[in-house]
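Structure, all two chains, one model.
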Amino acid sequence: MSRQMGDSHRRFLQTMMANGIVDEQGAKTLYQRCCEIHNTQYAPDKLDEFIDILNSRLQPLFMQIRKGMSEENGQQYYALVNMAETDVTRMSSDYADNELELFQKTMDLIVSSENGKACSTDILNSADTLTTKKLKKSETEHLLQRLVHDKWLTEKRGEYTLSTRCIIEMEPYIRTMYQDQVKVCHICHNFAFQCQICENPACSIKIHNPCVARYFKGRSEPRCPACDDFWPHEIPEVRRPHSHSRK
Amino acid sequence: MAQRRRQSAPQNQSQAAAQEEDDDLTFTQPSTSQVQRGLEKVTNAQVDQKTAEVVQYVLVKDQKKIPIRRADLVKHVVKEYRNIYPEIIKRAVRTFDQVFGLSLVEIDTKNHIYILVNKLDKEEGASQFNNPTNPKIGLLFVILSVIFMKGGVVRENLIWNTLKKLRVDPGEKHEEFGDVKKVVTDEFVRQRYLEYARIPHTEPAEYEFRWGQRADMEVSKAKILEFMGQLHEQEPQSWSQQYREAHSSSAQTGTSSSQR
């Protein structure tokens, strides 16, 4: 396959810029479509090579298309990330200073929680402690909606988690800001926020829910892969990546 | 980066614009020999780094369809490299072309304002105007259609009345668009999709709409005519004047800066 950058790559990149993040199936469909439009060779298993070519040209611009797993469903995602600014200042064109401070507080809450979630009440309360400029309750609620809409946070039943995009994009920032607090998954070695924890206090390793599902699948008695203690949590089902068609 | 923060504070816009005008006056394009001498003092990697910053700045602005002023670019990004500005822009233009399939077009040569235009052929049925994911684009399309069908310029009342017929009342808060009047006369104008100007010698002041430069480059008049044809069950050719215009100018759409 040609290592040359072509219009199919450029179209792929333009779509990534418009969407920010796309799941693996979506990326594959897009890859195929871009190749078809520009009559270039398409090989179904060469998506990562295709992206590598783009990345080699994006790297001098401090940008990259990076792959990461969703903590929610275990699926792979591709996100276009900005490596020049990996901290929250990256968001400063869209959010005011006090809004960014609230986002940071939300991250604090999520990282310091056991299960990688922060409930809306705690976030609303932390809005009172802003040092820059206080946010009203309604403003905070509106801001949270925007953060979800812009794909920085994910919300489910009043609880907020870091979105896949946020984890992929802000990985270096999270690493430096929360180096003592944040743990990695024992199975996939990526950051673990939403996860299960070994209850043996001497061990207390973390495993993502989808990683738990895959790891314990078919084992009669689940035991911690690190300390061999009984794994007392409910073992989730392995979720099949749902096949969906994109327009 | 501090320069990005500015956007979130649209107040005092006219004041800020005036300020920027001053800045642009103090920036004179360096001569070829000045650039040559300037380049001797910096490494290639430093120029590339500056180029990357310029590319990022332009991309962020473009995502919101905000035109880029040369004055802003120099003041907030290029800064102490202003003596080699032409070289940096040359590299940025090359990057947009080779990596992103975009071209950086100067839409206003007097005030030095740039926008990004897509160089890739519009995918059939996938242009943002045929397949709007952003509902505001639909609103814009209606307004551009009215202006085009009426010969290129219309009084604002005609636009408001048309929108009212579509149950978009500029006097009321719309659940999708919010303040419709603001979206049309401010946002679309800022993004250069529309021009909104006072009709000379009107008292009280009356305003009229025209297509903006970005619309000229991004929107195909032939597509609008096709759409009107479907709407009225007529052949696009039956609007002979519009048809001629659409098919004489459509060849230029998206390839060069507009000449009107």
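Confidence is low (pLDDT under 50) at residues 1-13, 254-260 of chain B.
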